[in-house]
Specification:
Distance between the termini of chain B: 18 Å
CATH class of the largest domain in chain B: Alpha Beta
Structural class of chain B: alpha/beta
Strand order of the largest sheet of chain C: 2-1-3-4
Number of domains of chain C: 4
Chains: A mainly alpha, B alpha/beta, C mainly alpha
Number of helices of chain C: 28
Strand content of chain C: 5-15%
Largest interface: A-C, 25 and 32 residues
Radius of gyration of chain B: 22 Å
Order of helices and strands of chain B: HEHEEEHEEEEEEEHEHEHEEEEEEEH
Radius of gyration of chain C: 30 Å
Distance between the termini of chain C: 67 Å
Strand content of chain B: 25-35%
CATH topology of the largest domain in chain B: FAD/NAD(P)-binding domain
CATH architecture of the largest domain in chain B: 3-Layer(bba) Sandwich
CATH superfamily of the largest domain in chain B: FAD/NAD(P)-binding domain
Largest sheet of chain C: 4 strands, parallel
Strand order of the largest sheet of chain B: 5-2-1-9-20
Oligomer: heterotrimer
Chain lengths: 111, 342, 620
C-alpha cells in the first residue's frame, strides 16, 4: 500500500499481545480443554492433504480476527480427520476446526 | 575399615537382578565392601543395552571400552554371576528375600537390587513412518548396530547416501501410542548420531526433525551447537508425516516446518527414528510400568518391599552415567538398610 | 341387561377420546407431511400384499416382540406379556361383552368395564370352567407377571438382561405410574365385584373370595371402579406426551415402512412418526459402547430421540460415533442413523473448497483403479500389500491417490456438511471416470460407502478390497498357503452395518487361517470413528480396549480387520498383532511366476466376467 509520496508502507508484522483478541481461543478452549495443550509441533500440518495446519489456529487467534482467514486456510479443510489421528497431544482437531469456524461466524467474520 | 561396620559385609548376601550398567556398578560397589553378590542376567552376557551401542554422548566414548571397564569392576570373587538365568519373582523369606529363578532352588538374600532396565519403543506402532515396511527406515538402535558393523552398511549400491533424516520423539510424548512422558535421551542421541553421519559422509545432508530440543545434560548443549556449527546438521522444528518409498527405495518425506509455518518435502536415503524408552518386564510387578519409589526425591526403595531397591532405567529413562550412579546409590542404600536392621 | 352406564365411565371415555383424537390428527398429519412420492407409495401399498405383510409384522413385533425375545428371553417376555396380554384383554373383553350383551354396537367403555356390568359365572364352580372369565383372568395374570418384571427391572435391570436402563423424563414417570396402576386397579376392581357377587375365575374369583372373607367388599366396588377408570384416564391423557405414544405409533411406522417410505431430509412426516414410535425401551443403551466408556452420560439414542421429540437440542450429539449398533439393536427398527445425521447442521464449513471439477489424469487406460483412501496412507502396510496383490493377480492397475491428497468427502458428510461433501464428491467423480477404469477398488470402508451410496460412476464397479481379494481367491488368480494361526475378524462399522459386506471378509479369513475365532453377535465399533468429533482420546481408547477384549474372547493369535482407521485405533491397545485383511492375504500369498497358459486362461475368464458384470450393472 503506497502513501501519497509513493513510499511503500509495510503491514505491521509484530503481534501486539496486549491487544490480542482471545475470544475465539478462550471459547474453544472452554469446550475442548485439550486445545490448550497444543505443542505447535506441526504433525497436523504435515499429514494434511491441503498442507494446512490446525496448530496455526492458535497463533492466529492472537491477531485481529479479520486477519484470520488469510492465514489459516480454514476454508480448505476437508474435515478428513488425519490430523486428529497423528496429534501427539490427542487433541480432537476436527472438533476444534468446527468450533472455530462456528465462532468465527458468530463474531461476524465469514470464513 | 571400621570393625563395627565390617560385620555387615561379611555375613550378608545381596541379589542384583540385571547386569546392565546399573546392575554392574551396584554389584561392584557391594563387592568392594565384602558383600556376597548374586548377579542375575537373563541374557547370555552382561552389559544390557550397552552392548548395542557404538559411541556414547556427549564425549563420544566407545561403548565397548566403557563396557570393558564395567566388566573389570565386577571381576571379583565375591560376585557370583548367573548368566542366562532370568528371575521370575522375589518373595519375602526369613527377614530377607528369596529369589526365584528358572533353575533350581531359590537363592536367599538379605536385600535385592532390581536393575532390570528398559525396552525400546516398538517403532512399528508408528506405522506412518514405515518401519518394518520400507527397508531404508531404521531406528536409532539399528543405526548404532550399523555403526558398529561399519560404514559400508549405510551405502546403497556402493554410493554414499545423499541425505539422511532423523525424527525425534518417536514413541515419546505421544498420546496416540499411549506414551505421555519424555524419554529424555533421544534428542541427544539424535544429535550424536547426526554428527556421526556427518563424520562418515561429510557431503551428505543431515536433517533432524524435532519438536523441542532437550539437551539438558553436561556437555549436551555444547554438542548441539557443535552439530550445527561444526558439522552443518540442519535442525528443523516440525514433524514428519507419512513416509513413502520411491522407485529407487529412497524415502520420500512430507513434513511441516513450524517456524517457517510452511509444508516441506524431501527425499532421503535413510530415515532414522529416535525411539523412546519404555518400561521393561520386571519380576517385582505384574504390569509394565516404571518402578516407583518410597521417597522419590532421596532414595530408590520400592514401596512396600523393605530391602528392595531399584537402580537404573527400570525406574525411568536414564543415561549411562546416571545408571552407574544410580547403581552405586542403591548399593549404599542397601548397606544403610542392613546396618539399621542390626 | 340393565343400563350399561355408570358415571365413572366418563373419566375413561374422556381420556381415551382425547388420545384417540390426538392419534387420528397425528396420522393425518404424518401422511400429509410426507413428500408426494412417498404419499403415492403409501396409497399404492394399501391395497397390496404389503398390507398383509405389515399386519404380520405388527403382530410379531408390536405384540409378540420377537426381536426383543431374540435379545433376552426375560426381557422379551416382559414386553410381550404387557403388550400381548393387554391386547388380548381388549379383544377377548370385546368378544365377551358382545356375546353377553347381544349387541356389537355399544359404547367403547362397555367391554373395558364389563365385569362391573356383568359379574360373570358363579365361583367356585366357574373357577375351573373354561370360558370367558377364565381366559380373561389368564391374560390379566399374564399382564401382571410382566408388570412384576417391569417393576423389578427398575431396580435390578440385570434380571432382564439389561446392564443399564433408561433414566426417565418426568412426563414418562407419571405415565409409567399410571400404567403400572392400571392392571392392579383392574384386578382389585374386578375382584371386589366378584367378591361381592361370589363370582369370578381362578384369579379374580379367588382374590374376591379372600376379600369377602375379611370384610364386605360391596361398598368398595364403586370406588374401586372409579379408581380404575381414573388411572386409565390419566394414562390416556398422558400417552400423547410420553413414550407410550409408541403404542399406536409403532404400527403406523411398520405400515409406512413396509410401503417403502424412508427417512430423508424432506420427510418430516416420517421423521416425526419415527420419533413417536420409539418406546424408550433402552435396548440401545446396552448396545452403545459409550455406555461403558462414558458411563452416566445420556447420549444414547433413546435420549436423543426423546430430546428431539420434546423439541430440545440434543446434548452430546457430537460424541455419537455413528457406529449404528443402536440401530441394529432397536426392536422397533427406528432409522436412528439417518435421524442423527439429519440433526447435524450444515454450518457451511468447507464451501470454500473448489467447486469446479478439474480434469483428471488421462493416462493409459486401466482396468482397475485403486483408491487407498486418505487414512490408508497412515497405515502404509495396507498399501504395500495391495500393490503385491495387484501385481501377483496380474491386474492392470493405477494408484489414483498415490500422493495421499484426495478425500472422498464422507468425513464432511458425517460432520453434517452435506453441501461441501457434494462439492468434494463431484470433483473426485470426474477424476475417477476420466481414468476409463472398469473396476474401482478401495481400501477404506468409509470411502467405499460414499462411493457406493452417492457417487455416480456409471458402469464402473465399486468394491472394497476385501471383496476384491475374495474374488481373486475364488477365481484362483492368487494362490495362498494356509496359515496355522487362529484369527478373529473385526467387522468395521462402515463395512458391515454400513454397507452390508459381511460374508466376503469372513470367507477370506477362513481361507487364510486355520480357525476363525470371531465371537458371534453384532460387530463392534473400534472407537476411532469420524462420527464422534467431540470425543476425547481417552474415551476412544477406552472403547478400543473394550472392543479388543471382546474380540479376543476366544483367544485368537491375531486380530484381522479391513479398515485402516480400525487398524490404527486397535494397534496401540492390542497385545496381539493387528493386521489388515490385505496384509494377511499378502503374507499368506504364494508369490512367483505364473504358468503362461494359466495366465492367458485367467485373463480371458476375467474379461468375460467383467463384461458380464458391466452388463449386469448397466442393466440394473
Amino acid at each position: 500500500m503506497k502513501n501519497r509520496f509513493g513510499f511503500e508502507i509495510q503491514d505491521n508484522r509484530q503481534i501486539d499481545l496486549d491487544l490480542a483478541d482471545d475470544r475465539v481461543n478462550d471459547e474453544v478452549s472452554a469446550i475442548i480443554r485439550a486445545w490448550r495443550s497444543c505443542l505447535k509441533c506441526g504433525n497436523c500440518a504435515a499429514v494434511c492433504p491441503e498442507g494446512e495446519g490446525v496448530y496455526k489456529l492458535d497463533l492466529s487467534a492472537f491477531l485481529d480476527l479479520s486477519a484470520f482467514q488469510k492465514l489459516t486456510g480454514l476454508d480448505k479443510c476437508y474435515l478428513c480427520g488425519k490430523c486428529q489421528l497423528v496429534c501427539p497431544r490427542g487433541i480432537p482437531t476436527r472438533f476444534v476446526i468446527m468450533q472455530v469456524i462456528n465462532y468465527m461466524k458468530e463474531y461476524g467474520k465469514a470464513v | 575399615m571400621n570393625p563395627d561396620k565390617q560385620s555387615v559385609g561379611k555375613r550378608n548376601t545381596v541379589a542384583v537382578i540385571g547386569a546392565g550398567p546399573a546392575g554392574l556398578s551396584a554389584a561392584s560397589a557391594l563387592a568392594a565392601l565384602d558383600f556376597e553378590v548374586h548377579l542375575f542376567e537373563k541374557e547370555s552376557r552382561e552389559g544390557g543395552k550397552l552392548n548395542q551401542y557404538h559411541q556414547l554422548f556427549p564425549a563420544r566414548e566407545s561403548a565397548s571400552e566403557v563396557m570393558g571397564e564395567l566388566l573389570i569392576s565386577v571381576d571379583k570373587e565375591n560376585i557370583i554371576r548367573h548368566l542366562g538365568l532370568g528371575v521370575n519373582s522375589i518373595k519375602p523369606s526369613d527377614g530377607g528375600w528369596a529369589v526365584h529363578h528358572g533353575d533350581g532352588e531359590p537363592i536367599r538374600s538379605d536385600a535385592v537390587i532390581v536393575a532390570t532396565g528398559f525396552d525400546f519403543f516398538d517403532a512399528r506402532l508408528k506405522e506412518e513412518f514405515g518401519y518394518g515396511i520400507y527397508s531404508r527406515v531404521i531406528t536409532s538402535v539399528d543405526l548404532e548396530k550399523k555403526l558398529n558393523e561399519g560404514r559400508e552398511t549405510l551405502l546403497h549400491k556402493g554410493t554414499d547416501p545423499a541425505a539422511i533424516a532423523f525424527v525425534h520423539c518417536v514413541g515419546s510424548r505421544d498420546e496416540q501410542v499411549g506414551v505421555s512422558y519424555c524419554s529424555r535421551l533421544c534428542c541427544i542421541t539424535g544429535i550424536k548420531q547426526a554428527i556421526e553421519m556427518k563424520e562418515l559422509f561429510p557431503e551428505t545432508k543431515v536433517y533432524n526433525f524435532y519438536i523441542d530440543m532437550r539437551a539438558f545434560g553436561t556437555g549436551y548443549e555444547e554438542l548441539y551447537r557443535k552439530a550445527q556449527e561444526q558439522y552443518g546438521v540442519r535442525f528443523i522444528r516440525g514433524r514428519v508425516s507419512e513416509a513413502s518409498e520411491d522407485a529407487e527405495c529412497r524415502i520420500r518425506l512430507k513434513a511441516e516446518d513450524t517456524l517457517m509455518s510452511r509444508p516441506l518435502k524431501v527425499s532421503v536415503d535413510w530415515l532414522v527414528l529416535l525411539v523412546g524408552m519404555r518400561p521393561g518386564c520386571s519380576p517385582v510387578q505384574t504390569d509394565q510400568s516404571f518402578l516407583g519409589s518410597d521417597n522419590p526425591l532421596t532414595g530408590n526403595a520400592l514401596p512396600g518391599m523393605p530391602g528392595v531397591y531399584s537402580a537404573g532405567c527400570c525406574s525411568g529413562p536414564m543415561s549411562i552415567p546416571e545408571s552407574v550412579a544410580s547403581g552405586r546409590s542403591a548399593a549404599f542404600q542397601v548397606i544403610d538398610h542392613l546396618n539399621s536392621k542390626q | 341387561m340393565e343400563k350399561l352406564f355408570d358415571p365413572f365411565v366418563i373419566l375413561f371415555t374422556a381420556g381415551f377420546s382425547f388420545a384417540a383424537f390426538w392419534f387420528i390428527y397425528k396420522v393425518i398429519r404424518w401422511f400429509a407431511e410426507l413428500p408426494a412420492s412417498d404419499r403415492s407409495l403409501v396409497l399404492h401399498g394399501i391395497f397390496s400384499v404389503k398390507t398383509l405383510q405389515a399386519l404380520w409384522e405388527t403382530v410379531s413385533e408390536s405384540l409378540l416382540h420377537r426381536n426383543i425375545f431374540k435379545r433376552n428371553f426375560r426381557l422379551g417376555y416382559m414386553h410381550m406379556s404387557l403388550a400381548f396380554g393387554w391386547f388380548m384383554l381388549i379383544v377377548i373383553g370385546n368378544i365377551e361383552s358382545t356375546w353377553y350383551s347381544g349387541s356389537m354396537f355399544k359404547p367403547l367403555y362397555v367391554s373395558v368395564f364389563w365385569r362391573f356390568f356383568d359379574p360373570g359365572p358363579g365361583f367356585p364352580e366357574a373357577m375351573y370352567q373354561p370360558g370367558f372369565a377364565m381366559v380373561m383372568d389368564f391374560f390379566l395374570l399374564l399382564v401382571l407377571s410382566g408388570l412384576g418384571f417391569a417393576m423389578i427391572k427398575r431396580f435390578r435391570s440385570k434380571v432382564v438382561g439389561m446392564k443399564r436402563t433408561t433414566r426417565q423424563h418426568p412426563v414418562d414417570r407419571w405415565a409409567l405410574t399410571a400404567l403400572w396402576m392400571i392392571f392392579p386397579a383392574r384386578l382389585i376392581a374386578e375382584s371386589m365385584t366378584c367378591g361381592t357377587y361370589g363370582t369370578g375365575s381362578f384369579l379374580t374369583g379367588s382374590l374376591g373370595y379372600l376379600f369377602a372373607h375379611f370384610f364386605n367388599p360391596q361398598p368398595l366396588v364403586l370406588p374401586a371402579w372409579w379408581f380404575y377408570s381414573a388411572v386409565l384416564c390419566a394414562f390416556f391423557v398422558l400417552l400423547p406426551f410420553s413414550r407410550y405414544a409408541h403404542i399406536p405409533s409403532e404400527p403406523v411406522l411398520i405400515f409406512f415402512r413396509k410401503y417403502g417410505v424412508r427417512t430423508s431430509n424432506l420427510s418430516t412426516g416420517y421423521t416425526d412418526l419415527s420419533l413417536h414410535a420409539c418406546s424408550s425401551c433402552g435396548v440401545c443403551i446396552d448396545a452403545c459402547q459409550l455406555s461403558e466408556a462414558l458411563p452416566g452420560r445420556p447420549l444414547q439414542s433413546n435420549y436423543f430421540v426423546k430430546s428431539l421429540r420434546h423439541r430440545e437440542t440434543p446434548n452430546h450429539q457430537w460424541e455419537c460415533l455413528l457406529c449404528g449398533r443402536c440401530e441394529a439393536a432397536c426392536p422397533v427398527g427406528v432409522s436412528l442413523m439417518p435421524l442423527r445425521q439429519m440433526q447435524r447442521p450444515d454450518s457451511g464449513i468447507g464451501l470454500g473448497l473448489a467447486k469446479a471439477p478439474h480434469p483428471g489424469k488421462n493416462g493409459h487406460r486401466v482396468n482397475v483403479l485403486y483408491f487407498a483412501g486418505c487414512m490408508s496412507h497412515l497405515t502404509p502396510g495396507i498399501i504395500e500389500s495391495m500393490k503385491d496383490i495387484f501385481t501377483q493377480a496380474g491386474a492392470k492397475w493405477q494408484f489414483l491417490d498415490a500422493d495421499g491428497n484426495r478425500c472422498c468427502g464422507r468425513p464432511m458428510k458425517l460432520a453434517g456438511q452435506t453441501e461441501a461433501a457434494r462439492n468434494v464428491r463431484l470433483k473426485l467423480e470426474q477424476d475417477i471416470k476420466a481414468t476409463g477404469a472398469s473396476l474401482l477398488v478401495t481400501s477404506c470402508p468409509i470411502c467405499y460407502r460414499i462411493f457406493n451410496e452417492e457417487y455416480e460412476l456409471g458402469p464402473i464397479r465399486i468394491v472394497h478390497h476385501s471383496q476384491y481379494i475374495n474374488e481373486l481367491l475364488e477365481w484362483n488368480f492368487i494362490r495362498i498357503s494356509k496359515s496355522g494361526m487362529k484369527a478373529a475378524y473385526h467387522e468395521p462399522c462402515e463395512l458391515g452395518r454400513g454397507s452390508g459386506i459381511r460374508k466376503e471378509p469372513r470367507n477370506v479369513i477362513s481361507a487364510l487361517y486355520s480357525k476363525d475365532l470371531t465371537p458371534p453377535g453384532e460387530g463392534l465399533c473400534c472407537g476411532g470413528s469420524l462420527g464422534g468429533p467431540a470425543l476425547d482420546i481417552a474415551t476412544r481408547k477406552a472403547v478400543a480396549r473394550g472392543a479388543v477384549s471382546q474380540l479376543t474372547a476366544n483367544d485368537p493369535d491375531l486380530l484381522v480387520t479391513s479398515c485402516p482407521l480400525c487398524k490404527k485405533t486397535f494397534r496401540p491397545v492390542s497385545e496381539i498383532p493387528v493386521m489388515d485383511i490385505a496384509e494377511a492375504t499378502a503374507s499368506c500369498m504364494v508369490k512367483g511366476e505364473r504358468l503362461a497358459e494359466a495366465k492367458g486362461e485367467r485373463r480371458e475368464a476375467r474379461g468375460e466376467r467383467e463384461k458380464k458384470e458391466i452388463k449386469i450393472r448397466v442393466g440394473s
